Model the fold of this input.
Amino acid sequence: MTHESAEPEWLTDDHALSVKELAEMSGLSEVELLELVDYGAVTPIDPEASPWMFTGRCLLTVRTACRLRISFDLEPHGVALIVSLLERIHGLESQLGNLRAQLPRRP
Amino acid sequence: MKYKDYYGILGVDRSATTEAVKKAYRKLAHKYHPDVSKDPEGEEKFKTVAEAYETLKNPEKRAAYDQLGRHAPGENFRPPPDWGQQHGDPQFSFDDADLADLFAGMAAGRHPGGGHIRMSGQDYDVSTRISLADAFHGTEVELSLTVPEPDAQGRLHRVPRTLKVRIPKGATDGQRMRLAGRGGKGLNGGRDGDLYLNITLHSHPLFRISGHDLYFDLPLAPWEAVLGASLEVPTLAGAVRLKVPPNTQAGQQLRLSGRGLPKPQGKAAGDLFAIVQIVLPVAASDIERGLFEQLATGSTFNPRERLQQEINNDS
Done:
């Protein structure tokens, strides 16, 4: 049995990643990554800026895209569509959770 | 090595065509894929299904699998004597290996030129559930993993590993964190995979969680709501005084700024909200009843003014 200890890093909107870093961390090539941006699956922090930077949260989206592409053998357009629908579902789930937290419990 | 019935897992006959295998896999992947499934055990089930498909979709691997013979799922077995010679690594250690590693090894070992290709290590996704108090103060969790790791000859073995991870304060429900290089080991100079931690919080008997904000119900007696009050209320850092202003209504949210969960990287903490509930004594005493009767006679307050207007409009 090996015991190790480690310090994790946050994946939040404050964390900015370059295309190169995002590619390295997600295991996709830069070309594949730019294809995902092209199809609207991920959006740079400022699409007008050069070079593009991405939030830490984008890394999670890119990994999801990567998993879906491999598991379901999908082409980029299909991946982008599913990823954007999943993002919408997660957004709605989090809104629902926030509203539930504000509902008083029955005394 | 323990036998796994890949055909049974996918629910297909041994004679199924590659197309039928693919169809069965897709159906199960829709059901269990962790990104689309709501099944709490979906991820584990998907891994099993994906492992079966990974072998059966490839004619070479499928033939090698078929030659292992038929066994009961979970039964300890050894491949036929010449199996390793024919299909993979003759030196493969079958004792502490997993069937998946055996077939993964076939993919890694065989390629044009016979050299060794560089392969990145696998990323791991691990979930951990912590208490609200631990999220508030920061905590340390111990993750237990069983992972395939290559030995000096590059052969894969299942190794138990525990990893102590310090979760600094700032996490909330659904928080994701990354541990660089803590996933599977890379092969032949490939980079090590990463470990992704998914943190969820146990529900709390009092506080409800919304991002970094927290909510709780604050019951007030009718006279406290009317006259105002200074009350002691609980927070994650201990009790504090809360001033309830006069004429506070039911459902109103009283904010305790910065008393919610801390945020990462030193940003201002979330808030704590007390949601006012106006409650009555379960059974009013004679004195209380007398006082309410005085109020009923003396007050001109009509709580149903809008309803009355609506009734008047209709008639």
Observations:
- Chain A touches chain B through 36 residues (CB under 8 Å).
- The radius of gyration of chain A is 17 Å.
- The mean pLDDT of chain A is 88.
- The beta strands of chain A are 2-6, 9-10, 16-18, 53-55.
